[in-house]
Amino acid sequence: MKRVLVILLAIAVLVSPLAPAFAQSSTFDKIKQSGVLVIGTRTGSPPFAYINKNNEWVGFSIDLVEQLIVPAVSKDVGRPVKLEKKESTPPTRIPLLNSNQVDLIAGTMTDTAERRQSVDFSYTFFLTGAQFLVKKGSPIHGLNDIAGKRIAAQQGSTNAKIIREKMPTAQLREFPDQPAAFQALVQGQVDAYTNDGIQLAGLKSKTPNPNDWEVVGDFFSEEPYGMAMRKGDAKFKQAVDAALKQGFESGKYFEIYDKWFGPKGELPYPMSPQVKAYLLKQIGK
């Protein structure tokens, strides 16, 4: 009897560490059961994702999910899927994803080698670079002008990391989100706010007096935006990539881009031939 108990205890010890792995369901299983795809996105990053004057959660990133990702996921799980949005910021988005509170990060998240250690990324859906937002007439015109200056950035952003590495004499001050960083700039607590150029252009366009502000400097980083997913869920990543690829090939992606960034869009920002070639090269075009 004692020998039987020893054997049973040994089996229990061997099996118990594996139990969580077997209990872990895939993203598709979670969506199939709930009928909901939960994305982490932004409330204050126009035109990618923000709350508009009608209190609607809208944006380029959200349109990509609604028009490309949701139909593909619905087809794969065999039932109509609803979209649920949750606020995510640079410090919270990976924890939200890895704790299963969201299934996909769809905002303005740069695909980096460091982040790929924790999450998987989709194809790049937007390419930009870091710049500065300053008051018109500021002596700051680019990276070489910020030594000793007070520079705002978002917590956990690639921009903050690059400032530390490339200009350690700058006084870097990190804020939880874009509105807080911009408010510090408005109040004179900082001399400039660094973020991806397209986000700064979007922020400027939404201010009460856009002509009071300037986006300055050459890109001092390359910022390829991707949609982040839990690491190792190959089937879900394949579905997201396939949806984006279909959007590139059919032209639907470029229609959505034109809606937000075309001549009559929320923020006119024509796509350069180089950026278009970069996007299409991902899918072998």
Overview of this protein structure:
This protein has 285 residues and is of the alpha/beta class. The protein has 2 domains: 159 residues, D-Maltodextrin-Binding Protein, domain 2 (3-Layer(aba) Sandwich), CATH 3.40.190; 92 residues, Periplasmic binding protein-like II (D-Maltodextrin-Binding Protein, domain 2, 3-Layer(aba) Sandwich). Helices cover 40% and strands 20% of the residues. It contains 11 helices and 15 strands. Helix 4 runs antiparallel to helix 10. The longest helix is centred in the N-terminal third of the chain and has 18 residues.
Please tag this protein with its features.
single chain; about 280 residues; alpha/beta; D-Maltodextrin-Binding Protein, domain 2; 2 domains; five-stranded mixed β-sheet; three-stranded parallel β-sheet; 11 helices; 15 strands; about 20% strand; disordered N terminus
Write the layout of secondary structure elements.
Elements: H1 2-15, H2 19-23, H3 27-34, E1 36-41, E2 44-45, E3 49-51, E4 57-58, H4 60-77, E5 82-87, H5 93-98, E6 104-105, E7 119-121, E8 126-128, E9 130-135, E10 150-154, H6 158-166, E11 171-175, H7 178-186, E12 192-196, H8 197-206, E13 213-216, E14 223-225, E15 228-230, H9 234-250, H10 252-261, H11 273-281
Parallel strand pairs: 1-5, 1-6, 10-11, 10-12
Antiparallel strand pairs: 2-3, 3-4, 7-15, 8-14, 9-12, 9-13
Helix pairs in contact: 4-9, 4-10
